[in-house]
Design goal:
With 317 residues, this protein is an all-beta fold. It has no helices and 27 strands. The chain has a domain of 171 residues. The relative contact order is 0.14.
Length: 317
């Protein structure tokens, strides 16, 4: 199989305007990965950009490997019913092609998510009909796919050791049969067994940076209630502690994210809040928390969202 891709070894430098702070934290400097047209770009230090490669089949969900030396992305080929989606792994420095993996599982007609679990393992969520998600792990060396796991909203922990997801619900299941259930590492974690209330989870699962906790929003439409739910994934924490905090009716979360200080930042319309799990308090804040800010780069061609970053120790540290 020949991939029509051009590796661009010559550097194309341009100044990148950043609309977010926090790219240099302590002794760390971060490189920003973004897509412009069919080109994959890396902004070294998030200040000067170079085009790494050009792929006429398109670039979806690009992500750095844990060591920052490789980039994985997906060729979406839905325009050609005879062509399966493909996983591409390229060298981040030269743009040279390292591996192309046809995603030939019988129940994949598109890819919804992609990420790295470790240096030698990737994960994807494939889409199949009728409208369902299937989780796979991919061995980087062999290109082999694991057995598929049905479900939705899959979210591996940052360290790759845990997985939280929505339990599989058949497409078109009516309420209350479509009530949300969270699974952690394959086991039901919330709501507890025997809970017959109707739950609808909102927004994505959000992991703390140390992979010890995961948070999400639980909506109870029948009672017009929303709560922040936090699940512990600490090693050795056999009871998988679950805590929740009921939100005021005026707070309608659109995004949530953990902060470096261990609070949960919440965006609700034009307002921002911080929830402190230790104190059990919710505080409105004037400025948008850094955890909720969207990082973009801007050049003469427009503004482009940064899809991933890789941080390293700065020179001299």
């Amino acid at each position: 199989m020949r991939l029509m891709m051009t590796a661009l070894t010559a550097l194309t430098a341009l100044t990148v305007t950043l609309w977010n702070s926090g790219l240099v934290a302590g002794a760390l400097v971060c490189d920003c990965l973004y897509v412009k047209g069919n080109g994959l770009w890396i902004a070294s230090g998030c200040t000067v950009a170079r085009q790494v490669l050009e792929d006429p089949l398109g670039i979806s969900f690009p992500h750095y490997s844990p060591d920052g030396r490789q980039v994985a992305y997906v060729n979406e080929t839905s325009a050609d019913p005879n062509q399966l989606p493909r996983l591409v792994i390229a060298d981040a420095a030269s743009g040279s092609l390292l591996k192309v993996v046809p995603l030939n599982a019988p129940d994949i007609n598109a890819v919804l998510q992609l990420g790295w679990l470790s240096q030698d393992k990737l994960w994807i969520v494939g889409h199949n009909n009728p409208s369902a998600g299937v989780y796979y792990e991919i061995n980087v060396e062999s290109g082999k796919l694991s057995t598929g796991i049905p479900g939705a909203r899959f979210a591996p922990s940052p360290n790759g050791k845990h997985m939280v997801q929505d339990e599989f619900v058949p497409h078109g299941a009516p309420p209350p049969h479509d009530s949300s259930v969270a699974l952690l590492d394959g086991d039901r974690i919330y709501p507890p067994q025997g809970d017959r209330s109707y739950h609808r989870f909102e927004q994505r699962y959000s992991w703390s940076s140390d992979s010890s906790r995961v948070a999400f929003i639980d909506s109870r439409p029948d009672l017009s209630l929303r709560s922040i739910v936090i699940i512990s994934a600490q090693e050795g924490d056999d009871d998988r502690k679950v805590a929740s905090f009921q939100l005021p009716a005026s707070v309608e979360p659109e995004r949530i994210a953990w902060t470096d200080q261990g609070s949960i930042a919440i965006a609700s319309g034009d307002h921002y809040y911080l929830y402190d799990p230790k104190a059990g308090t919710l505080t409105i804040v004037v400025q948008q928390p850094a955890a909720l800010q969207t990082l973009v780069v801007k050049d003469v061609n427009g503004t482009f969202p940064v899809v991933d970053r890789h941080c390293r120790a700065s020179a001299g540290e």
